[in-house]
Amino acid sequence: MNFEPTALALYAAYFVLGAVVSLINSIAGGGSTLSLPIMIFLGMPATVANGTNRIGLIIGNFSSAFNLARHGYLNKRIFLQLLTPTILGALLGACFLVHIGDKLFQAILAVVICLVVVMSNLNKNVLGKPPANPPEKLTLKGALGFFVIAVYGCIVQVGVGFVQIFGLTRYTGLAPIQINALKNSLTNVFLVVSTIALGVTGKINWPIAIIMAGGAWVGGYFGSFLQRKKGNKFIQRFISVCSIGMAIALVVDLIVK
User: How far apart are CA 171 and CA 122, in angstroms?
Assistant: First the structure.
């Protein structure tokens, strides 16, 4: 690493970016819509930024999920139900991920951001009410749904938190803090698979990744702390604010370009 003053300022910025993104992802989702454009703007190729960003996401998600699970918010039965389709989806997604070029990834990213903003603002009962109790056994719809989510999360990852919140709410009917414990745990499954694939193909800037991971641990822990202290209404409001923020950022980006 280069420890000149300018480089130190850059590393400090990446540490803060990792913390902020992890805090956002811990409570809601969409943090990568902040980090990826900044990393690309700072000169990283899109696919390298995608790989580098994931190291911090893994650490941040683990920090948040571990803290929530330690306080009893992780439904282990549902996690184990959805583990197999998530792993299978991640393995399929990894096969596509390593062959995507920078231009194709950026095109997919632009489309996905639009879809995520729409999805995150849909009425939660638009497809009917969530179940009163989580299913006892994995359903076919659940298996297919979370298989597809894992494929998408492995390839693009951006906004997958909102998609998972929507899917897990529809599938389980659990409280928001329990949904987040599941979301963060399942996210790490396909993040680990995809990050291994990106690392093997040389699409990770490891010095920056390690710095962002340090910030991500702090952000993930603080995010889980806020959820426990502030409760479900705070989580729902935070998700709404993040959704609106994504929509505004998208509009500004379109106007600037």
Answer: 16
At 188-210, the pLDDT tens digits run 998 899 889 888 888 899 999 99
CA distances to 98, 123, 209 from 58, rounded to whole Å, are: 19, 29, 11
Local structure of residue 1 (DSSP, 8 states): -
- The structure tokens listed for 42 are 């700072």
**pLDDT tens track for 23-77:** 887 776 667 777 877 887 777 887 888 889 889 889 988 888 898 899 899 999 9
Please name the helix (run of DSSP H) or strand (run of DSSP E) that holds residue 56, with its range, or none: helix 46-70
CB atoms within 10 A of CB 173: 16
Q: CA 226 to CA 9: how far, in whole Å? A: 28
pTM of the model: 0.75
The candidate with the shortest Cα–Cα distance to 156, out of 167, 148, 145, is: 148
Question: What span, in angstroms and rounded, lies between the C-alpha atoms of 177 and 191?
Answer: 21
Of 192, 184, 195, 188, nearest in space to 67 by CA: 184
